[in-house]
Amino acid sequence: MSLIHKSAADLGALIASGEVSAVEVAQAHLDRIAAVEPQVNAFLHVDTETTLEQARVVDARRAAGEDLGPLAGVPIAHKDIFTTVDMPTTAGSKILEGWRPPYDATVTRRLRAAGLVILGKTNLDEFAMGSSTENSAYGTTHNPWDLSRIPGGSSGGSSAAVAAYEAPLSTGTDTGGSIRQPAAVTGIVGMKPTYGGSSRYGLIAFASSLDTPGPFARNVMDAALLHEAFSGHDVMDSTSVDAPVPSVVEAARNAEVAGLRIGVVKEFGGDGYQPGVLARFHETVELLESLGAKVFEVSCPSFDVALPAYYLIAPSECSSNLARFDAMRYGLRVGDDGTRSAEEVMSLTRAQGFGPEVKRRIILGTYALSSGYYDAYYGQAQKVRTLIARDFESAFQQVDVLISPTTPTTAFPIGERADDPLAMYLADLCTIPANLAGNAAISVPCGLADEDGLPVGLQIMAPVLGDDRCYRVGAAVERALEARWGGSLLSKAPAL
Amino acid sequence: MSAITRDEVAHLARLSRLALADEELDHFAAQLDVIIGAVARVAEVAADDIPPSSHALPLTNVYRPDEVRPCLTPEQALSGAPAVEDGRFRVPRILGEEA
């Protein structure tokens, strides 16, 4: 097995034992990136020399006898929404083209501290707004399973990089499903930690009460290792939870579901779901029962209105957060010819610098927050948030975890939903409740849909700070399914 | 729930500091009308006795010790600026000619 096909845990162990160097591992992935990027377009920025220098530092620290962590020397692709001092940070937007931040995000800093080697910055929907990575100002990313289809979004560059073996690990951010949905449609693992469990400091804000950094990997254990490497309390983020990170690596190792109570969310899985998605989901439910779990149907009636509530709350917060892109202190400036006022320059810059989805959400958010409409829209949406939290609370009195398909359909063709925002928004139907209530949730591969042969994801939702339960159930499903398939789901993907 | 008009979109664009072209106004007005129609469903569910939640977590003010610590240098803070003059951000005029 070549280096690029190995898991992050295996690579870390090989580097630790001295069998391969971090430089060799980095070079193997840089070679793969060079070979497949023309087809995939997962990266916005790759810097060979900076990458190899990071790897050389890890090798030198190891040679000096330092005891480094389990992921030291392992390459990672980093979503281009986290600030990085040594690489540009654009959030997928023209308004930040070429911007080099003066500081590192906490997640970036922790990746470096754990000895991870950052390969580059990955493509995303502009400011993380989208479900397909078609809204990037720098071109869309392609799904490695079928290059004519979307890789999910907004962290589509990160999911495609891992699915195309360009990196064993990557980072994402999940505001309404932007880690779980791309993981599901590219056949990998993606985890949204409990809100506040991973720091937002240095993450370019979209919707501050929802944004959550999390890991992508090709298996559950690798995701758990990365989760532990960058999560935990951060004094730089006032919404960071000051509680220990649950031992998710231990939970992934445990992988035991006998006696566990699992709730199937009744509201997710009716009309509008692709038959192949439902078939794989129902098979996985039977599998969990065969492993000794007790499965119940659980009703969460307010989940039906989570999507409309999200599409009022997220744009409202975005319209406020994106006010900082004012052409004054950083980023693009348009029309500053000495005759125009600051306000005119701002309006011209924002009109030219933002793409259509961002403009649409800024206007929708401004509308929802405006006098006369605030109570009817934003205020009501915040009440729905309470109802959803109550649904979760009541469900978790009956069961230990909730499950559903991660997405209603498999990856759709590029361009298919581009002019229909409502159709696009449906991609996040099942993932949004966990964002509104702040719960932990993971997506793990559960098979291929019969009609198109594309990956289907299983979503496992756990209570706030119950992240370990997601890994425990996810690892059990992964172990049982891989035994049935004779390998990972991703090993069935066509070669690039 | 009222429909959103093209004039309203133009007003919202001004409030948001977005200089939209005429065709963008037409395009967004049609799309936003559909989106607002769909999201208006939130009004059907939440009764008066439901308290709103602004956040997933109970939030309290967080303070840090009031002590001097390292911060960005002026050069770092200005490093991404579109225009700089005399160690400061150079911005277009803020007041009108008549001021």
From TrEMBL, chain A:
<dbReference type="InterPro" id="IPR036928">
    <property type="entry name" value="AS_sf"/>
</dbReference>
<dbReference type="InterPro" id="IPR023631">
    <property type="entry name" value="Amidase_dom"/>
</dbReference>
<keyword id="KW-0648">Protein biosynthesis</keyword>
<keyword id="KW-0067">ATP-binding</keyword>
<protein>
    <recommendedName>
        <fullName>Glutamyl-tRNA(Gln) amidotransferase subunit A</fullName>
        <ecNumber>6.3.5.7</ecNumber>
    </recommendedName>
</protein>
<feature type="active site" description="Charge relay system">
    <location>
        <position position="154"/>
    </location>
</feature>
<feature type="active site" description="Charge relay system">
    <location>
        <position position="79"/>
    </location>
</feature>
<comment type="function">
    <text>Allows the formation of correctly charged Gln-tRNA(Gln) through the transamidation of misacylated Glu-tRNA(Gln) in organisms which lack glutaminyl-tRNA synthetase. The reaction takes place in the presence of glutamine and ATP through an activated gamma-phospho-Glu-tRNA(Gln).</text>
</comment>
<dbReference type="GO" id="GO:0050566">
    <property type="term" value="F:asparaginyl-tRNA synthase (glutamine-hydrolyzing) activity"/>
</dbReference>
<comment type="similarity">
    <text>Belongs to the amidase family. GatA subfamily.</text>
</comment>
<feature type="domain" description="Amidase">
    <location>
        <begin position="24"/>
        <end position="470"/>
    </location>
</feature>
<feature type="active site" description="Acyl-ester intermediate">
    <location>
        <position position="178"/>
    </location>
</feature>
<dbReference type="GO" id="GO:0050567">
    <property type="term" value="F:glutaminyl-tRNA synthase (glutamine-hydrolyzing) activity"/>
</dbReference>
<dbReference type="Pfam" id="PF01425">
    <property type="entry name" value="Amidase"/>
</dbReference>
<dbReference type="InterPro" id="IPR020556">
    <property type="entry name" value="Amidase_CS"/>
</dbReference>
<comment type="subunit">
    <text>Heterotrimer of A, B and C subunits.</text>
</comment>
<dbReference type="InterPro" id="IPR000120">
    <property type="entry name" value="Amidase"/>
</dbReference>
<dbReference type="InterPro" id="IPR004412">
    <property type="entry name" value="GatA"/>
</dbReference>
<keyword id="KW-0436">Ligase</keyword>
<keyword id="KW-0547">Nucleotide-binding</keyword>
UniProtKB/TrEMBL annotation, chain B:
<keyword id="KW-0436">Ligase</keyword>
<dbReference type="Pfam" id="PF02686">
    <property type="entry name" value="GatC"/>
</dbReference>
<comment type="function">
    <text>Allows the formation of correctly charged Asn-tRNA(Asn) or Gln-tRNA(Gln) through the transamidation of misacylated Asp-tRNA(Asn) or Glu-tRNA(Gln) in organisms which lack either or both of asparaginyl-tRNA or glutaminyl-tRNA synthetases. The reaction takes place in the presence of glutamine and ATP through an activated phospho-Asp-tRNA(Asn) or phospho-Glu-tRNA(Gln).</text>
</comment>
<dbReference type="GO" id="GO:0050567">
    <property type="term" value="F:glutaminyl-tRNA synthase (glutamine-hydrolyzing) activity"/>
</dbReference>
<protein>
    <recommendedName>
        <fullName>Aspartyl/glutamyl-tRNA(Asn/Gln) amidotransferase subunit C</fullName>
        <ecNumber>6.3.5.-</ecNumber>
    </recommendedName>
</protein>
<keyword id="KW-0648">Protein biosynthesis</keyword>
<dbReference type="InterPro" id="IPR003837">
    <property type="entry name" value="GatC"/>
</dbReference>
<keyword id="KW-0067">ATP-binding</keyword>
<dbReference type="GO" id="GO:0050566">
    <property type="term" value="F:asparaginyl-tRNA synthase (glutamine-hydrolyzing) activity"/>
</dbReference>
<dbReference type="InterPro" id="IPR036113">
    <property type="entry name" value="Asp/Glu-ADT_sf_sub_c"/>
</dbReference>
<comment type="subunit">
    <text>Heterotrimer of A, B and C subunits.</text>
</comment>
<keyword id="KW-0547">Nucleotide-binding</keyword>
<comment type="similarity">
    <text>Belongs to the GatC family.</text>
</comment>
